[in-house]
Automatic annotation (TrEMBL):
Keyword Repressor on entry: no
Gene Ontology MF terms: hydrolase activity
Top-level taxon of origin: Bacteria
Organism, scientific name: Rhizobium sp. (strain NHG3)
Name of the gene: echA
Enzyme class: hydrolase
Name of the featured protein: Epoxide hydrolase
Amino acid sequence: EFVPTYYSNYTMETIEDCGHFLMVEKPEIAIDRIKTAFR
């Protein structure tokens, strides 16, 4: 709801079998997405 207020270029995606703590539950996905964002 608030993302467009602060960012204009973003992508949201649903991660299967993951709850609120992406970095704990699926660290490989989190690391990949963070690296991709800074390329």
